[in-house]
Write a structure and sequence with these properties.
Layout: H1 2-36, H2 42-45, H3 51-55, H4 57-73, H5 83-93
Helix pairs in contact: 1-4, 4-5
């Protein structure tokens, strides 16, 4: 029984880690998209490569959508207990600042 509990905990931890990884990527892409139009944004001033510059605006948006969906789906095993954090992830995807 102890071994089964360890396996379940490991599986739950992987789901949470996947959520964090995917949401972090989506957040960065959205941040890049928001800064893309701002000539004074630090990424432009420092000539950093960003997702919109590398992929184009629409493809960067599509990738952010994909990562957000994957993040939310990674929490499916938590059922209704994941509703609040899933809504949070969706809100980050649609933020405007």
């Amino acid at each position: 029984m102890q071994e089964i509990i360890k396996e379940i905990r490991a599986y739950l931890g992987l789901s949470q880690a996947e959520f964090a990884d995917k949401l972090g990527l989506a957040f960065q892409i959205i941040d890049d998209l928001l800064d893309y139009e701002d000539e004074n944004a630090s990424d432009k001033v420092n000539e950093k490569a960003t997702y919109p510059e590398l992929l184009g605006v629409q493809e960067a948006r599509n990738l952010a959508d994909k990562y957000t969906e994957q993040a939310i789906n990674s929490l499916a095993l938590f059922g209704e207990h994941a509703e609040v954090i899933s809504a949070f992830a969706d809100r980050l995807l649609h933020r405007t600042n």
